[in-house]
Each structure stands twice: as structure tokens, then as C-alpha cells.
Amino acid sequence: MANISNPSRLLPTMLTKTRIPLSTSSPVPTHEQIAHLILEQKSPTQALQTFRWATTNLPTFTPNQSTYRALVHKLCTFRRFDTVHQLLDEMPGSIGSPPDEDIFITVVRGLGRARMIRQVVKVLDLVAKFGKNPSLKLLNSILDVLVKEDIDIAREFYRKKMMGCGVQGDCYTFGILMKGLCLTNRIGDGFKLLQVMKNRGVTPNTVIYNTLIHALCKNGKVGRARSLMNEMVQPNEVTFNVMVSAYCREESLVLALVMLEKSFNLGFVLDVVTLTKVVEILCKEGRTMEAVEILARVESKGGRIDVVAYNTLIMGFCKSGKTKVGCRFLKEMEIKGCIPNVDTYNALISGFCASGSLDSALDMFNEMKTAGIIWNFVTYDMLIRGFCSSGRMEDGFKILDLMEESKGSFGGRVSPYNSILYGLYKDNRWDEALQYLTKMGNLFPKAVDRSLRIICLCKEGSFEEAKRVYDQMKVEGVVPCALVYVSLINGYCQEDCVREAFELMNEMVVQGYFPVASTFNPLIDAFCGQGKVVGASKLLEDMVGRGCLPNLGSYSPLVDAFCAKRDFHKAFMFFLQMVEKGIVPDYFSWNSLVLCLNQEACWLEGKNMFRVSNLLSLIIET
Are 501 and 489 within 8 A, CB to CB? Predict the structure, then answer.
């Protein structure tokens, strides 16, 4: 309102802009319209000008408490408290009455927003100036502002200014104090306050109980919170939301479900955030169908299931190897009007990649484009990793090209490129992997420099220096590629540093890089060389369990080691595993097994000769 020199034309225009209809029979705006117009102004000067103009130029308009309150609010927003005091002083002469309770509360809240705490308390002096006593509502408003700033100041105000004047307060008063105590983790004082209320005959309401229960749960005292809940006459949805969320946070699934069932029985429907936590834990425990039942019950009671809850459920099915079931819920959520997002599709793509159904993952990728959902970094990253891990390098390169051509800000993320290196390594294309690593130098100069240096140092036999550079990479937040792990593991195995090699292989697996036989065979051999055949056999079992493909070099050291220990049973077991996987035993494995059998005296006793003959026949047949 830059100019009000022509108010007769300006005011109707401004009222129209505020979307308040003007009555054709009564052109003079109402108090509500003037108050709204004041609040619409962009500066304190414009607000004051609007108020003065209406008071001066509208003959039938007289300001009242509501218009003054609107102006006070606007001036407080801009911290014009000096002008506020002038307005309050003029009110008795202007409208024939002092400021009302709501205006003083507006001043209190304005001072609170400005964090002028001392001035907040002085509002009581302002009230006394007009010959009035502060109402409980005003005192509570001051207390609420003080609690947000300093609980000790608030408690002193309550004791001196409220109790000192004979004001005991109501449930709202105690609720404010309880909030302040709980926000500062003074739970013990919170219980004392609860007891004070009871002693004074004030029944704590649900809000007060919920505040204390929430503080207990936040501090991990869920059992005490549950006991306090038993004291409540009428726990509400908030109570159950707090308790169920707390049990979920502690992963106490049984107790969370018991509390959830109780809330259902009382007719409550918990909020979708709490329900999603329950679904997440159920899925983590592999109880996905129970999660489905809970969501169905919530919907039957009129509750709302959002996309996050559906995504959590779908992710649970995908992680349990039931990605096709997850796809059914994708269709179901669409039918119910819940629009899937990029996280929904990413969960399904991840599930298909994990199960090796890469064509289905690619179909889902294409379906996203049809549905108008933009691929994000996670989408590209998962597909590239899936294709490269399964030996489909050409498809991996195609997805990488799509990612680089997209307009997304994916620069600086090395993960997809590390997946390419991992795929080349798994295909035994070491030289190509090194060439690709070198080309990556333009995008990731630090990571490539450190990686190439480690590989060169390992070739030179400088393994300690290589490990030092590796540790430096991790400190710098650079993610090592598979080639770095392989070089270090091979180097440590050459130096017979089995423990260090084993730790690095574990880190490699954690990163999602599963070693090929040429990497874990030297470690098996080193374990066997140190006589740690049990460790070597567990390592092989773990690698096979993770989908790694062993070869002759994986089994031969174990057969030889167990034979050397004259443990024919274990040696023969690994020998048979080798044959069952289509691996042809070499001369040394045959020789070790036969010699071991011949050296077992107990096997050559007459009563076991028939069994010996059968075993030899079985070996020859295999």
C-alpha cells in the first residue's frame, strides 16, 4: 500500500484482492474485513496507515478490539513494540475500553517470537497499568513462552507470579510445565509434578500423561512408560502411537503387536508412520503375510495406507525372495489410488536383480518410463551392479550410457563404475579392468590415483605401503574397487599374512564384491599351509554359499591337508564335492586320497576290507 492519497478508490480494490466480498447494500467494510486487510500488508507502516485511514475516512467505522488486535499482531511480527505500547495507551480513549485479554496474549506471543523474555514477564505490569488482573489464560500464555526458552525461568514464574498470587493453575498450566521438564529430560521432576497435581486434586489429563510417556520412551525407559500408561483412565491414539513406536525402536516385536492389538480393540487406528514401523519389523523377521493382514485391518477400519507403507511391504517381499508377490502389491496400490514412486520400482528392481531375474528387472526399468517415473541414481546403480555381477557386461555398459546421458546430477558417484570394474574382474578380464580404471581418472582423479598406486605397490611387493594408501583412501571417504581388494589379498597371501588377507576379503564381501576362485584360492592354500584346515573349509563353504564358483585349486589344498592329517572322511567328502560340481581331480588329489586310505590301519582290518573295496570302486567310478 504505497499510496493512500485516494482511499475511496483504493480500499475497494484492496478488499477485492483479499478475496473478501463487499456487500452492494453496505459499501462500508466490516471490522473483520479491515482486520484482514491490515494483516495482508507487507510492512508495519502500511498496516498502520491502513488502520489510520479506515478510522479517519470511514464515517460509520469505529475500531474495536479485533481491529486493534490485528494491528498489534502485525506490528509484533516486525518487532515494533514501541508502537504497540502507544496503541495500547490510546485504546481507552479511542474505543472506551482497555485492551482485552486476547490483545495482551498477542503481545506475549510476539515478544516470545522475538525472544525478549524479560519483556514477556513485564506484560503483567502492562496489564496492571490498565487496572486489570491477569487471567489464567494470559498467565498460561506467558508460562508457555518461558518454557520454550528456559524451564527454570518458567518454574520460578509459576512459583512467584502465579502461586504467589494464589493462582494454582489448571491442567493446561501443568501440561506446559510437564512439556518443559520432559523437553529437558527432567523425567524425575516430571513425576514429582504429576504427584503435586494429584495432591492438589487436579486430575492429570491424557496430554500430560502422553508427554511424560513420550519422554520415558525417548530415553529408553519403555517398561516404565508402560506402567504409567496403566494409570491412565483413557489412553488415546497418541498414547498407543508412542508406545508401539517405542517397542518397534527396541525391536520388541511381540510387545509392539500386543499394544497394536489393544489399540484395535479400543477402536483406534494408529497413524501410518507407526504402522509402517510395525510392517518394517515384521518384514525384517520374514513375517510378511502378517504385515499384509495388519494393513488390511487398518484399511477396513478406515485407516490410510500411504506409499511409504506399501514400499516397506514390497521391499519386505523382495528381500525374502518373493519379488513377484511384491509386483502384485504394486498393482493393488495402483487400483486403490496410491501412486507408486521411484522407491517402489527400485525395491522391485533390487529384488529381481538379487534373484538373478535380470530380464524382469529390465522390464520394470522400462515400465517406470511408461509410468512417467524418472529413474534416479539408485535405479541405475542397482541395474548396473546386477548386470555386471551376472556377467552381462554389455547390458551394464548400456545402462551406464543411459545414466551418463540423463540430466540427473549423478556426477561424483563412483559406485556404478566400480560395478563395471567388478564385472570385468569376475569375467577374468583383468587387463581390460585396468584400462577402464585408468580411463576413470578424468571423473574420479583421487580414487583412480590411489587405486593404481595400490595395484603397482602390490606388484612390487610393497604391501605395507599399499595398505597404508588403502587406509588413507578409507579416511578420505574413497570407496575401493574390487581390483584394490584383490591386489591386497593376493599380496598378503604371498607374504603368508593370512589374518590380514581374511579381514580384507570380509571387507570386500561387505562391499558386495564376491571374489572369484583365483582370489580366495590363495587364502585357502595359506590356511591349509598353516594347518588351519577347519578355517579353510569354512571359508570355502562360505564362498560357495554366497554363489562363488570354486575350481580345482579350491578343493585340492583341502584334500591334501586332510589327508596329511590322516582324516580320510573329510578328505573324501571334499573330493566328492569337487566331482559333483564337475571338477576333474588332478593326479595329486588322487594320490593323496589313495595314500591316506592305505595308511589307515583300521581300514585294512579284515572286517573292513569290503568297505575299503567299495570306497575304491566309488573313487574310480567318479
Answer: yes
**What pLDDT, in 10s, does the model give residues 111-134?**
999 999 999 999 999 999 999 999
3-state helix, strand, coil in the chain (%, to 5): 75, 0, 25
**92 pLDDT tier (thresholds 50, 70, 90):** very high
Residues 436, 441: Cα–Cα separation, whole Å: 9
Q: Are 316 and 284 in contact (CB under 8 A)?
A: yes
Residue of 60, 121, 110 lying closest to 87 (CA atoms): 110
Q: How far apart are CA 198 and CA 200, in angstroms?
A: 5
Q: CA 610, CA 240: separation in Å to the nearest integer?
A: 71
Give first-to-last CA distance, the chain, whole Å.
97
- How far is it, in rounded angstroms, from Cα 376 to Cα 543? 32
Q: What's the grid cell of residue 568?
A: 580320510
265, containing H or E segment: helix 253-265
Q: Of 53-57, 89-93, 211-215, where does mean pLDDT reach its minimum?
A: 53-57
Q: Are 459 and 451 in contact (CB under 8 A)?
A: no
For 98, other C-beta atoms within 10 Å of its C-beta total 17
- SS3 state at 501: helix
Furthest C-alpha separation in the chain: 129
| Amino acid sitting at position 123 | V
The span from the CA of 157 to the CA of 117, in Å, is 12
Beta-carbon count within 10 A of 383 CB:
30
pLDDT of residue 3: 40
DSSP state of 162: I
Tens of pLDDT, residue by residue over 557-594, are: 888 888 888 888 888 888 888 888 888 787 777 777 77
∠106-110-116 over CA atoms, to 5°?
A: 135
Number of Cα atoms under 13 Å in the Cβ half of residue 113: 14
* Torsion, CA 321, CA 322, CA 323, CA 327, rounded to 10: -170
Measured at the CA of 138, the angle between CA 206 and CA 68, to 5 degrees, comes to 125
Of 321, 393, 310, 316, nearest to 353 by C-alpha is 321
Locate cell 569337487: which residue?
578
Helix axis angle, 415-426 to 393-405, nearest 10°: 160
Q: How confident is the model over 230-264, as pLDDT tens digits?
A: 999 899 999 999 999 999 999 999 999 999 999 99
